[in-house]
Amino acid sequence: AVSFGLGAYVTAIITSRYTWIGAQLPQPVDFILVLAVSALACLIACSAGLLLGAWLGVAQFRGRALVLALLNTALALPSVVVGLVVYLLLSRSGPLGFLGWLFSFQAMVLAQAVLVLPVVTALVRQTIEDADASHGEQFASLGAGRFVRGLILLFDERYALLTVLMAAFGRAISEVGAVMVVGGNIEGFTRVMTTSIALETSKGDLPLALALGLVLLGVVLVLNGLIALVRHWCCRRDAPLPEPLPLPEPEQNLAPEAALRVSCPVHGAATPVQNQHPMRDGASACRASESARA
Predict the structure, then answer these.
(1) pTM score of the predicted model
(2) Binning pLDDT at 50, 70 and 90, where does residue 239 land?
(3) Is the pLDDT of residue 292 over 60?
(4) What DSSP designation does 274 have?
(5) Using CB atoms within 10 A of its CB, is residue 194 exposed (0-12), middle (13-18) or buried (19+)?
(6) Cα–Cα distance for residue pair 105/102, rounded to 1 Å
(7) Residues 156 and 109: beta-carbon distance below 8 Å
(8) What H or E segment, with its residue span, contains residue 20?
(9) What are residue 221's phi and psi, to 5 degrees?
(10) How far apart are CA 31 and CA 152, in angstroms?
């Protein structure tokens, strides 16, 4: 049943219309919509989270421990609570009601961005703080300010931060509570794959719900694999070249007609010795010196 559901859903992407045992399945646009919502939410959250996390990683101010405690608490923020807060903000009586975003694509992006932002900020903050503790003093000694030092460390740890992007996208694409609250799960407009899974499970169509879940996991696996390949390629490209092996020094042969002067340890005079090695023992040097004096 699971394999048949996967095949049916893939076929639907091509045919754009299909049925599952007499019941109409979600439209293929759900698949595209969930990718668009998650990608845009990650782009917004990462743009703000990278800068905020880099600043928190190097900044020292009064109340920093309290800010970090609140940030770590936001990692466990329930998605339905975020959806409720965004719903109140976008409702007609809310402060952002004039935008008219409730039950729309923009509302789902906003809810997911709010959920992803603490994840990106907390992970980036920890990465930059560890990097600053190891070699941040070098940049400080060169006169770099805190924010500039954070940006430099952010670029220096760019490959490690790819894992943060993977975690952020996984958090966004698996979201269902906030998206259902602010999006309304309207078919053809705000129904994504996660809300479709929840709907089919409530209807009792478990094989279809499981098939959609496997398709969603497959998409995440492919994206994570691509990011891992990009990271591996970038690491190999920027890896330092191995140092060449030192060449052996050429042997210095003494010319047969070169006259070497060897110092006699007894008489203290430098005696020329023809065709002899400079490391000749002291006794030979003494005999050569006495012969020269005679």
Answers:
(1) 0.69
(2) low
(3) no
(4) E
(5) buried
(6) 9
(7) no
(8) strand 19-20
(9) -65, -45
(10) 38
Most confident of 194-203, 236-245, 250-259: 194-203
Question: Could you report the per-residue pLDDT of 249-266, keeping only the tens digit for each?
Answer: 665 554 444 444 544 554
Cβ 22 vs Cβ 208: under 8 Å: no
| φ and ψ of 133, to 5 deg | -70, -30
Amino acid at 195: T
Average pLDDT over residues 66-81: 92
Q: Which residues of 203-235 are buried (b: 16+ CB within 10 A; e: fewer)?
A: eebeebbbbbbebbeebbeebbeeeeeebeeee
Query: 76-112: string of b/e by CB count within 10 Å (b at 16+)?
Result: eeebeebbbbbbebbeeeeeeeeeebbbbebbbbbbb
Both tokens of 98, joined, read: 């004039």
Q: What is the pLDDT of residue 71?
A: 93
Contact 38, 165 (CB under 8 A): no
